[in-house]
Structure formats: structure tokens, C-alpha cells
TrEMBL record:
Organism ancestry: Bacteria, Pseudomonadati, Bacteroidota, Cytophagia, Cytophagales
TM regions (residue ranges): 12-39, 59-76, 85-106, 184-205, 212-230, 236-255
Mode of membrane association: Multi-pass membrane protein
Peptidase S54 rhomboid domain segment(s): 47-106, 173-253
Similarity comment: family membership: Belongs to the peptidase S54 family.
GO MF term (any one): serine-type endopeptidase activity
PANTHER family the record matches: PRESENILIN-ASSOCIATED RHOMBOID-LIKE PROTEIN, MITOCHONDRIAL (PTHR43731:SF14), RHOMBOID PROTEASE (PTHR43731)
Gene3D superfamilies: Rhomboid-like
Protein name: Rhomboid family protein
Keywords: Hydrolase, Membrane, Transmembrane, Transmembrane helix
Compartments, record wording: Membrane
Amino acid sequence: MFRALTPIVKNLLLITVGMHVIASFFLPQLSGLFALYYIESKNFMPFQFVTYMFMHADFWHLFSNMFGLFIFGPLLEQFLGPKKLLILWMVCGVGSGVLYSGYVAYNMGQLNDRIEAFSEDPDPEEFNRFVSAYSHYFNPVIYDFIDDYSRDADNPELVDRAKRSMLGVRDVQANIPMVGASGALFGVLIAFGMLFPNTQLFLLFPPMPIRAKYLVLFYGLYTVYNIFVSNPTDNVAHFAHLSGLLIGAVLVTFWKKDRQSFY
């Protein structure tokens, strides 16, 4: 099986799996150090735009990304050449991390504006709406506090507790790490779909054949859907996936203009 692996795909698999083993069993602190954080987080370091790609949350997260690279990577490397496959993987991975960080910064700006507006004009109804929007961060006893606050809206202690609760949510949001090579993998997927659109693939779930272009289209639409639905309990960075698709599409479009540049 491994004889079918091309050099760049093989090395990416070895490095990524190796990093997961080291972080899981020998140096667990690497998981926090190498994950990508919000740029204003105390945990953020610029090198994380690269290192986050080689960290994964668990075995199945690692397996899904590496299985995709194993399936689609070798043919792309044979067609594009080792250098361009590596460029595709790294640019889509780093680029999706950068764009995702911009997306997080925008959301954090919205959250900060909401907290600032509440601080200037505290209102129990606004706090209730805030708790509803971020309910997954709160213990159910918060609703008892909301009842107390609603009955005594001018109580400075209750107002201060509400502010501190909102700031606590902001701190949690600012320190959620992102890990995984999904952005890079989605770049590989879009490249495969654009270069080999009519290649028949066979899905495992459900067991059925599908052309590469339709599989990529499904992933793209599913990703966009999840961004707009924005389930607060969903810990998948769908915007990073979409970013990988877009960056990969731009790269392949640029490369297809001059087939002689492949190597």
C-alpha cells in the first residue's frame, strides 16, 4: 500500500502523524503551544499559522485528514509535481489559518461591541439575550440570576456580576485553539476536483459512486451551509475549510493558465 505513496505525500503523512504521537504521548504541552489562537490572545504566537496544521484534536480528526491526503494526494503530486503539491498544501493550510483568524477577529469585535454597549447601558433584557446567544457557556443556574437581575435592574452588584459573566465568555472565546490540516486538505480536494472533475470515486458512506466534481461541490455547499447556520456547539472551523477551498481554487486556476509550469 505504501509503495503507491509519492514523496511529498509520504513525508507529510509521516511528519503529521509523528507530531500527533509526540504531542499525545511525550510532549502534551506542544498541543497548546502549536495550536492557532486568536491574534489578541495571550497564547498567540505567529509561528502557529504553520504549526497548527500538524496538530490534531484526536485520532479520528487526524485519520480523516490524513486519509484524504492519502487518497487524493499521490495523483495530484504525479500531475502537478512534488514542489507544487507542497506549495498547494502549505499555502492552503497557512492561508486558511490567516483567513480564519480574520473571521475570528471580526466575531470578537462584534462580541466586544456588544459587551461595551451593555457596560454603557446595562439592561437585564440585553443580558438575557446574550445568555441565550452563548447558552453553551453558562450553567443553568444563570437563569436564576437573570430573574434576580430583572427584578432589581439597578443593583450595582448584580450589574457587575452580569458584566463579569460577559467578560468571562469573551475570555473563553478568545482562547479557543484551532488545530488540524483540514484547510490544507480542502485545498487538495478542490484541486483534485478541478483537475480531474470526471474521475469516478466510490464513497464508503453511503456506498455509491460519485464524480470528483460533485463530491467537491457537496463539500463546498455543506461548508457554506454550516457557516451560515453557525451552531454555537459545533467545534468545527467551517470557515477555515471554505478558505482552503477558495485558496486552492485560485492556485489551480493560476497554474492551469500555463501547463508548462508544472514540475
